[in-house]
Amino acid sequence: MLEFIKSYLTVIVINLIAVVWLIFSVVKNKSKTKESLKIALKTFFKTLSMIIIIIIFIGFLLGFLPPDIISKVVGEQAGFLGILVTAVLGSVLFVPALISFPLAASLLKGGASIMSVAAFITTLTMIGVVTLPLEIKEMGKKLTILRNVFSFVFAIIIALIMGVIL
Amino acid sequence: MKPVEINKSNEKLKQKKSLIRDYITMGAIIIVAVIALLFFPDKSGPVLSVSKNYFLELIMILPAIMIIIGLFSVWIPKEMVVKYMGKTSGTKGIFVAIAIGMLPTGPLYIAFPMAIALLKKGAKISNIVIFISAWACIKLPQELVEIQFLGIEFTLLRLALTIIFVIIMGLIIEKIIDWTDKKNIKIQEGV
After folding, report:
1. Which of A44, A104, A151 sits opposite B62 (nearest CB)?
2. Is the pTM of this model over 0.80?
3. pLDDT in tens, B122-133
C-alpha cells in the first residue's frame, strides 16, 4: 500500500485536487461548471496531438539509448568540456526524473565529477529539446528560446559552484 | 455582420484549421514511427514499452490537469492572480510561483498550458518563468528521491542554487521581453 502511494503520489494528488474542486464547483454553480468543462475539453484536444508526438519521440529516444549507455557516455567525460557535453546530453535526453537520480548516483559511483552530474540533472529537468515544439506553440518563440538558453547557462554556473563547494 | 464578429469567426476558423493540421502531423508521425519500428524489429520492444508507460502516466494525469485548468479559468478571478502574481506582487509573487510549481503535478509539458492560463489572468512574465522552472526541477516527491540517491548535502545545495538562479533568470527574461516589446512599439509608431 505504502509503495503504491509512493509511486502514484503525483497521480493521487492531482486527481484529488481536480475531483474536490469539481465537486465544489457543481454544488456552487452548475453553469460555471459546464463552462469550465468545456474549456477543459478544448484544451485537452488542443494539446493531445502534440503530447502523443512527444511520447513517441521519448519512446524512440529511450528505446535506442537506454540508461546504461547514457551513463557510459556521461561517465567518460572530464573537465570543463565534459561539463558542456553532459549539459548538452541532459538537454537533448528525456529521462523521467525518478530514473534520473539513480542514474546520476551510478554516474558518481562510476567516477563522474560532481560538476558534470549536477549539470546533467539540472539540464535534464529544466530543458527539453523534445518538448521544444510544444513550448514554442504555447509560450511563443521568444520566451521559449530565452528560457532554454538561460536555463542552459545557469545549469553550468550551478554545476561549477557546486563543484567548488562540494 | 459587425467587424468584431467577423474577426471572431475568422479566429475560430483559424483555430480549427491548426487543430486539424496538428492531428494530421500526429498521424504522419505515427505512420513514420511504425515503419521505423518495422526496420528495427529488435528495438520495437523497448520503444513500445517506454511509450506505453508514458502514455499510461499521461492518461492518469492529463484529464485532471485539464479539468483544473478549466475550473481555474472560470472560478479564479483575474484580480486574484494579478494580486498574487501580477506586476506589483514582488517577493510574494515569486514565493507563490515557486510554491505552485513545487506541487506534485506531473511532467514539464503539462506546465505550459497551465502557464498560459496564469498569463492570461494577469500573472507577470518573471513569475511565469519561475513557475515553469520550479515545476521542472523543484518537485516535492522528486526531491525525496534525490536525497535518497545523491545525499542531503548535494540535494540541498543544488536546490538552493537552483532557486536563486531561477529567480534571477525570471527577472532577466522579463526585462529582455519588456525591452524588445517597447522597441517594437517604437518602430511601429515610427519614432
Report:
1. A44
2. yes
3. 999 999 999 999
C-alpha cell at A47: 494539446
Residue of B55, B75, B140, B177 to mutate, testing the A interface (most A Cβ within 10 Å of its Cβ): B75
Q: Is the sign of the CA dihedral B100, A142, A53, B166 positive or negative?
A: negative
Q: Quick check: helix, strand or coil at residue B190? A: coil
| Boundary of a domain, candidates B59, B75, B91 | B75
Largest CA distance in chain A: 61
Instruction: Verify that B69 and B92 share a domain, yes or no.
Output: no
Residues of the domain holding B51:
3-75
Q: Do residues B57 and B117 share a domain?
A: no
Q: Same structural domain for residues B89 and B162?
A: yes
Q: How far apart are CA A74 and CA B51, in angstroms?
A: 24
CA A94 and chain centroid, separation: 7
Which residue of A10, A29, A48, A62 is the best one to mutate when testing the B interface, meaning the one whose CB has the most B CBs within 10 A? A10
Q: B65 with B17, same domain? A: yes
**Alpha-carbon distance B70 to A114, whole Å?**
43
Say whether pLDDT at A59 is over 90: no
Most confident of A61-75, A100-114, A144-158: A144-158
Question: If pLDDT is split at 50, 70 and 90, which confidence band does B1 have?
Answer: very low
Q: What angle do CA B88, B92, B93 make, to 5 degrees?
A: 65
Count of structural domains, chain B: 2
Indicate if B110 and B56 belong to the same structural domain.
no
Q: Which domain-ending residue is among B13, B41, B75?
A: B75
